[in-house]
Amino acid sequence: MQIYLDTASIEEIKKAAATGLLNGVTTNPTLIMKEGRDFKTEISEIVKILKAHTDDFTVSAEVNSTEWKDMVKEGLEYAKWDKHIIIKVPMTQDGLIAVQEFKRRKIRTNVTLCFSPNQALLAAKAGAFIISPFVGRIDDAGASGMDLIGQIKQIYENYGYETKVLVASVRTPTHVRDAALIGADIATIPYKVFEQLFSHPLTDKGIAQFQADTAAYHQKLR
Ligand code: E4P
Q1: What's the gap in Å between 7 CA and the centre of ligand 1?
Q2: 7 near 25, Cβ under 8 Å?
Q3: Is the C-beta atom of 156 inside 6 A of ligand 1?
Q4: How far is the CA of 55 from the centre of ligand 1 (A)?
Q5: Cα 155 from Cα 24, distance rounded (Å)
Q6: Ligand 1 pocket member 26 (CB < 6 A)
Q7: Do 107 and 76 form a contact (C-beta atoms < 8 A)?
C-alpha cells in the first residue's frame, strides 16, 4: 500500500520523506491556508522535497472553483508547475465533467469528498486516477468508513476500473491497518499517525532490554 502524507506542512513532509517511505502528499484548501503561504510556492516546495527522494510520487493540488470550466482553468495552471502534480476535484457533477476534460489532456485527477459507493462508481466511469473516500468523517457521523472502502473495492473489481482507492480522513493507526487489510491502494495520513505506525511498546521494551544486557556484559569484562 502506498503511503501519502495528508498535510501542507513543509517540516512534516521533510521528516516523513527522509524515511524513504513516502509515496506522495495530499493537500486541501484547509491544510494550505493553515500554512499561510502562497499556493504555488507551497505546492512547488512540496514537489521539490519529494523529488529529492524519489521520482515516483504525486502531490494533490485542489481546485477551488465549483464550475467545471473554471476547475479546468485552475487545474491546467497547476499541472504546468510539475508533472507530479495531480488535480484534486470535488465529487460533484461539474467535478466529474472536469475530470473527463483533464483525462482528455492526460492530466491525472484525485476526486475528493467521496462518501458513497455510487459516487466512487461515477468517479471511476469519469476516469479519475484516484478516488478519495473520507473514512474518518464517515466514522464521525456514526457509520463505518471502512465498510465504504470494501464496497468501492468490490465495485472496482467487478468492472475492472483502474481508479486507485485512496483512504482519506485517516485518524488512527487502526484506520491504516484496516486500509491495508482491505487492500486499499493508498492511505493518506496525518504526520502524527505516520509517526505512530513505527512504534510499539514491546519494541521499545525489547531495545531497552538488549541495550541493558549488552552494557552489563561489557561491564563484567572490565
Ligand atoms: C484528503 O485528501 C483530505 O485532505 C483529508 O484526508 C481530509 O481529512 P479530515 O477529515 O481529517 O479533514
Answers
A1: 9
A2: yes
A3: no
A4: 24
A5: 25
A6: yes
A7: yes
Distance CA 92, CA 80 (A): 24
pTM, two decimals, is 0.95
Cα-only R_g, the chain: 20
User: Measured between alpha carbons, how far apart are the two ends of the chain, in Å?
Assistant: 49
pLDDT tens for the chain, 222 residues long, are 999 999 999 999 999 999 999 999 999 999 999 999 999 999 999 999 999 999 999 999 999 999 999 999 999 999 999 999 999 999 999 999 999 999 999 999 999 999 999 999 999 999 999 999 999 999 999 999 999 999 999 999 999 999 999 999 999 999 999 999 999 999 999 999 999 999 999 999 999 999 999 999 999 988
State the CATH architecture for 2-221.
Alpha-Beta Barrel (3.20)
Domain limits, the chain: 2-221
